[in-house]
Amino acid sequence: MAKNTKRPYDATRRRERAETERQATRRRVVDAARALFMTKGYNATTMADVAREAGVALQSVYTAGKSKADLLHLVTDVAVGGDDEQVLVADRPEFKAIAQERDPVRQVQTFAQLIAATLERVAPIWVAYREAAAVDPKAAENLVAAHRRRRETFGQMIRMVPEDRLREPYERSADTMWAIGSVDVFLLLRDIQQWKPKRYADWLRNTLVDALLAS
Q: What is the pTM of this model?
């Protein structure tokens, strides 16, 4: 008679499955928060609303973000990266490819392409971020931090260009690119001037080359 043997306990597989489920729940929460912030607005959206929209328990919402401001921060991070992978912008392949480019003009043109694509994703949620910052101190703090992180990223980008090819030193050049490529300028041109995405991308590419590179 064959002995009954117990299957070895596979803790690794269980942890992997739990992590996959956690990430899927977090993704549903972030997607639901984004939809609600854009349709109802930040003020009118509650954590309970997000739980209902996502089809998860309220505790799962608080696990993803401890507050509405945290959820908005997560939504914005996903928009910036284009996905919910925990990878810094500076560590993404498209960013590294710019560092390998040897033509400064092409580098700046690629900066412009990345900025334009990112702003297309970020702009829809930015209105909610402005609303949140006006009434929620934590959201206002997060908004300032987001601006500073973006400036830091632009500083890393511009340092890929040889300084002797720039009109101004690195810090001034980073400030220029950060200001011209801001979401606020993008929204003015898109919403007030009714620019289409291609027109904005073409303008940004030409403007950054003219503003940043020496003749």
A: 0.82
60-97: string of b/e by CB count within 10 Å (b at 16+)?
A: bbbebbeebbbbbbbbbbbbbbeeeeeeebeeeeebee
Domain assignments of the chain as residue spans, ordered by start = 11-66, 80-212
pLDDT digits (tens, 9 = 90+) for 64-85: 989 999 999 999 988 888 776 6
**Tokens 């929204």 sit on residue:** 187
Q: DSSP labels for the chain?
A: -PPP-PPPP-HHHHHHHHHHHHHHHHHHHHHHHHHHHHHT-TTT--HHHHHHHHTS-HHHHHHH-SSHHHHHHHHHHHHHHSS--S--GGGSHHHHHHHH---HHHHHHHHHHHHHHHHHHHHHHHHHHHHHHHH-HHHHHHHHHHHHHHHHHHHHHHTTS-GGGBSS-HHHHHHHHHHHT-HHHHHIIIIIS---HHHHHHHHHHHHHHHHB--
Tell me which of 1.10.150, 1.20.120, 1.10.10, 1.20.1530 is the CATH number of domain 11-66.
1.10.10
